[in-house]
Amino acid sequence: MLSFSDYLDAVPKVELHLHIAGAIRPATLEDLATKNGLHLPKRAEALYRFETFYEFLDALRLAALSLASAADFRRAAYECLEDMHRHGGVRHAEIFFNPHYFTPNGVAYPEIVDGLIEGCAHAERDFGISSLLIACIDRSVCLPSEALQMLDWMAQHPRREVVGIGLDGAERAGPPLLWVEAWRQAGRAGFKRTAHVCEDNQAQFEAPPAHFTLCRDALGCDRLDHGYNILADPDVVARAAREQVHFTMACWSGLTWNRAPRRQRIKAMFDAGLNLSLGTDDPTIFGTTMGHCWRTVFADLGWGTAEARKLSLSGLHASWLPPDRKAALEAEFTAALDALERDLNPADRSVDLSVTRR
Ligand code: ADE
Ligand code: ZN
């Protein structure tokens, strides 16, 4: 019979919220930095310790600079997909990459995407995990003109795997209205759209519920990343529930003091009937895995098989896979969930909170 922890690790999942620059293994970061002549002021593990959200973003951008060739992107993509597969039962992932992070290294857009695509293909061959890519703009370091530039690159080098655009970085530095032209152009070009919004690493005045409304109405976002700060406005919560817009939430990427409060926000949003899934965001920087993320949330919130089934299937439905692949995966997910529930030891509710379990 399956322990509750084994069950949670094995539940089939999609990962819709992961940044490649935040998913580089510490050893790989050091290795690539040495190879590419990037000076790291500290060992990777120390670099991945910080006090503020803004120091975290600096660490993330520095880690990104370790990637300087197609082979580096291939390795980063392969390893992060291997980690998702081994530590949390992820069967499909949609990965953010910020092309502008790599321009100081002289890496052009096609080299980035083709390296990532190759790593993703190798991971699918070896682990059966599929993936798509989301080109992303860091609003703290990019101008709106650079978002348009990214769309030009995407138009000049179309790849089936690059299905959408995202917006990350510090919300206070680049509120939604700055990005209207680019997001509308992306919509016309057939790309899906998302944005980090209402993230609770920032105060209500920096990342207010009104940004949810702008992301939907002005940017046309198909789904949203984070979203916790909308809880301050019941009208926005009611609209999000009515429209069933999907939120890709992150269980462990808050600062340490904010993790338990964030779990309560996730619970409040789930209980309000919102459509959501759990992601790892920046798993190696924050020291988490998908399995760890799920076990931590389920242990803390007292969740069980009904919640697991709901999250598993909501994430899949919100993915940007083509309908035929989504339908095939839905059949796989449902069969796997049924089998896991049959095997689960109903008497076991203890949860192992280790980051990796094998
Ligand atoms: N980039 C990577 N992770 C992020 C996060 N949690 N918030 C904003 N930008 C990010
Ligand atoms: Zn994120």
Descriptive account of the structure:
This protein is α/β, with parallel strands linked by helices and 358 residues long. It has one domain: Metal-dependent hydrolases (TIM Barrel), CATH 3.20.20. 49% of the residues lie in helices and 14% in strands. The chain contains 15 helices and nine strands. It has helices at residues 4-10, 26-36, 44-47, 53-64, 70-86, 109-127, 144-156, 180-188, 210-217, 234-243, 256-271, 283-286, 290-301, 305-318, 323-343; strands at 13-19, 90-97, 130-138, 162-168, 192-193, 196-197, 223-226, 246-250, 275-279. The strands form two sheets. A five-stranded parallel sheet has the order 1-2-3-4-5. Helix 8 links the parallel strand 4 (162-168) and strand 5. The longest helix has 21 residues, at 323-343. The radius of gyration is 19 Å and the shape is globular.
List the helices and strands and how they pair.
Blueprint (H helix, E strand, L loop, with lengths): L3 H7 L2 E7 L6 H11 L7 H4 L5 H12 L5 H17 L3 E8 L11 H19 L2 E9 L5 H13 L5 E7 L11 H9 L3 E2 L2 E2 L12 H8 L5 E4 L7 H10 L2 E5 L5 H16 L3 E5 L3 H4 L3 H12 L3 H14 L4 H21 L15
Parallel strand pairs: 1-2, 2-3, 3-4, 4-5, 6-7, 7-8, 8-9
Helix pairs in contact: 1-13, 5-6, 7-8, 14-15
Bound molecules: adenine and zinc ion (ZN).
Strand order of the largest sheet: 1-2-3-4-5
Query: What sequence of helices (H) and strands (E) makes up the elements?
Result: HEHHHHEHEHEHEEHEHEHEHHHH
Give the bound compounds: adenine, zinc ion
> For the record, what CATH class applies?
Alpha Beta
Rounded average pLDDT: 97
Predict the CATH topology: TIM Barrel
Distance between the termini: 18 Å
* Number of DSSP strand runs: 9
Give the low-confidence spans. Answer: none
Major beta-sheet overview: 5 strands, parallel
CATH architecture classification:
Alpha-Beta Barrel
What's the helix count? 15
Strand content: 5-15%
Work out the radius of gyration: 19 Å
Category from helices, strands and their pairing? alpha/beta
User: What is the CATH superfamily classification?
Assistant: Metal-dependent hydrolases
Q: Roughly how much helix do the residues carry, as a percent range?
A: 40-55%
Query: What form results from the Cα inertia axes?
Result: globular
Tell me the number of structural domains.
1
